Amino acid sequence: MPASPYSHIGNVVFFLMATKPSSILDIGVGNGKMGFIARDLLDVCLNKSYLRKDWKVRIDGIEIYEPYIQDHQRSIYNNIYIGDAFEVIDRLESYDLIIIGDVLAHMEKQKAWLFLDKCALHSKHHILLNLPLGQWNQPDIFENEYERHVSFWDENEIKCFASDSSFFHFLGDKKYGVFFIHKDNYLFQRGEMLLKESSRLSTKGLSNKSLDILQYAQSLCPERAEIINNIGAIYLDRNELDNAIESFQSAIRKNPEFHIAHFNLASSYERKGNLKEAIIHYLKSIKLNPHFYDSAYKLGILYKKIALYDESLIAFDIAVKINPNLDKAYVNMGAINFLKGQYEEAITLFQKAISINNDNADAHWNLALSLLLRGDFKRGWREYEYRWRLKDAIIPKINIPLWDGKTNKGRILIITEQGLGDAIQFIRYVKPLSQRGLQVSVQCQRELKNLFKNIPNLETFTFDDYLPDFDFFSPILTLPYLFETTLETIPCEIPYLFANNDKIVKFQRLIGKNEKQKVGLVWAGKGSHEMDMNRSINLSMLSSLFELKNIEFYSLQKGDASKEVSLFNNIIDLTGHLEDFSDTAGLIYYLDLIITVDTSVAHLAGAMGKKVWILLPFCPDWRWLLDKEDSPWYPTARLFRQKKAGDWIEVIHNITQELSLFFPDFISLIS
Asked: First-to-last CA distance in the chain?
């Protein structure tokens, strides 16, 4: 309105006397009341400056409606700028005090907030905000559309920005607020408001909008480390690691003691593979805030990843001392003890995690592996069923009932899961299922379909094939649980897999006839396997075998590791003829012995009743149990175990010596 109420003038005078600004910007000049009061008080009364040339206080004004401005206003103000204050203020300098008179109510709410932000940035110290509160409807006045109220304000929207010296006045049933706002407090509280809004948007998955708000907040509060850190967090979520690292580094420059920024920077470096820097910043975060257990936990995870197990256990121990209910830390501590061969301690830790959180599927899963490794199948199979609750579990999408282990009539579909070796190992349950009177089919990986076709009473399908109707189904690794399999009741009628006749003929032609003993080799598993670094070796490590006379070595190695064969001229490579596992079975049929690391070929050779020597790491897969040279799953298998983690030299030395004894009619060149 051209003239705001007079009831708050005493408050304005008090504020001017308290702050004594040397420069003022009056936004919404109207009839010039604020300019007259400020000029009379600050120059005439305090400075005794009666003439314009002697004024010491600069008072400028902005007015959008030019007809309001007359000579008497121009005589009081140094400058009056005509136009929309939202745009005009961008062209002006900063002022000690900015007075906003009834202007916000004439703006849409979003624009009003942005305008308040501009005022804060152009204020050196204070803002004096006059604002009608509540549903204060005001139409055009004097045919001036700018006098129309288009937004309505509640005092709680402003109070957090204002000092305790703010006042409220009532004009009839209308409430009017006079808010004294310090620039720094406004920008801090506004930053808090924008942080909350960006967080709200992020939880809704609107990261682009959240980032826009944070970047705007940074323009208001360029020194706020929290804002810069949150910008980095969005980049980290997007895996834009360079931008994330730059943001977290910037946040740390603003506040070197900001432990969250160090934690996030460590996470970014870890994801990028710069583990040295990641460790430095995790440790820095722990030092800055010893009560922030996430830093210790993540550091433990990182140490575990690079096999620094003792350091990892120390980090996890710090985490659980801060948060004794951190079940995931106990799971990882158990996993490290498992890898170190301390299985009893591992089981205790997994059980501790379960006692804290029975829904922790990782704890149940790891407990299952530990129990099965120790031969405790009764408890192990039960815990193994928790695999379906794991984060990355691929649950069969099939709309038929699960087999209950009791029904003995109808059609059952067995669905393979996990690796090819798992499918080969547990396809042995087809026979006991058939013996119960069930019609059995299997849905398996394409590489196994032709191999499984030779199994009596079994119909095979791949995951791409059309399926007929079934009465129920079972995941293949649930069958030992349903059969209540123990070490004594493992179905071990060997062989249960056979080479196809056409494949036998195929490899008879390729191999030909000679009197040499034939040994198949596999030295590496699939690189994507989480434990591949523990089970795979380089072919060169087996070179001592090649010094034995009258033995032909055949490569059964597939994948990238198969390229190593080219470095040796005494290995026969027929893997180009291996299109699926029925081909592999055809080649194995003609071999006298298979030497392999823990891969699917070990299972295939064992299932075919072929002599197979299996190289096992210090911490083996559960199915090979502990401290045994034989296997209840495969009677023809012999197990060569590491006695020390990572030490393949002794294992290969033992195999070389045993191989010379395995073929007694041949003389070893090894002394």
From this structure: 108
Q: Which CATH class is domain 501-662?
A: alpha beta
pLDDT score, position 665: 56
Largest CA distance in the chain: 125
Is residue 612 a contact partner of residue 634, using CB atoms and an 8 Å limit?
A: yes
Q: How far apart are CA 298 and CA 510, in angstroms?
A: 54
pLDDT, tens digit, for every residue of 340-393? Answer: 999 999 999 999 999 999 999 999 999 999 999 999 999 999 999 999 999 988
**Band of pLDDT at residue 667, cut at 50, 70 and 90:** very low
* Cα 117-118-122 angle, rounded to 5 deg: 120
Beta bridge partners of 503: none
Q: What is the pLDDT of residues 508-526, one digit of tens each?
A: 999 988 888 999 999 998 8
- Whether a cis peptide bond, with omega within 30° of 0, leads into 495 is yes
> How far, in whole angstroms, is CA 479 from its chain's centroid?
33
DSSP state string for 280-339: HHHHHHHHH-TT-HHHHHHHHHHHHHTT-HHHHHHHHHHHHHH-TT-HHHHHHHHHHHHH
**Number of other residues whose CB lies within 10 A of the CB of residue 472:** 16
The H or E element spanning position 532 is helix 532-535
Residue with tokens 């009258």: 550
- Do 9-187 and 501-662 share a fold? yes
Whole-angstrom distance, CA of residue 643 vs CA of residue 488: 27
Query: Tens digits of per-residue pLDDT, 527-584?
Result: 665 676 788 999 999 999 998 888 999 999 999 999 999 999 889 999 999 999 999 9
Q: What are the CA-CA distances from residue 525 to residues 302, 522, 537, 546, 610 (Å)? A: 24, 8, 9, 21, 20
The H or E element that residue 249 is part of is: helix 241-254
Neighbour order of strands in the sheet with 517-522: 571-573, 551-555, 517-522, 593-597, 612-616, 637-641
User: 200-389 belongs to which homologous superfamily?
Assistant: Tetratricopeptide repeat domain (1.25.40.10)
Contact 581, 420 (CB under 8 A): yes
Rounded to 5 degrees, φ, ψ at 99 are -100, 125
Question: What is the three-class DSSP state of 566?
Answer: helix
* Residue indicated by tokens 């071990």: 492
Strands (E), 321-457: 411-415, 439-444
Residue ranges covered by each domain of the chain: 9-187, 200-389, 411-482, 501-662
> Average pLDDT of 160-188?
72
Which token pair is 26?
A: 């009056």
C-alpha span between 120 and 125 (Å, rounded): 8
Tokens coding 635: 């009677």
Residue 550 is predicted with a pLDDT of 87
Place of tokens 């009743």: 609
Q: By mean pLDDT, which of 157-161, 268-272, 601-605 is the weakest? A: 157-161
Q: Are 96 and 15 in contact (CB under 8 A)?
A: no
Residue 668 has pLDDT above 60, yes or no: no
DSSP letters for 597-625: ESSHHHHHHHHTT--EEEEE-SS--GGG-
Instruction: Tell me 401's DSSP state.
Output: P
- 3.30.1330.10, 3.40.50.150, 1.10.3720.10, 3.40.190.10: CATH of 9-187: 3.40.50.150
What CA–CA distance (Å, rounded) separates 214 from 179?
26
Q: Is 144 helix (H, G, I), strand (E, B) or coil?
A: strand
Q: What's phi and psi for 503, nearest 5 deg?
A: -75, -35
Q: Mapped to the 3 state alphabet, what secondary structure does 80-96 carry?
A: EEECCHHHHHHHCCCEE
Strands 174-182 and 123-133: antiparallel
Average pLDDT over residues 164-178: 62
Q: Above 50 in pLDDT, residue 219?
A: yes
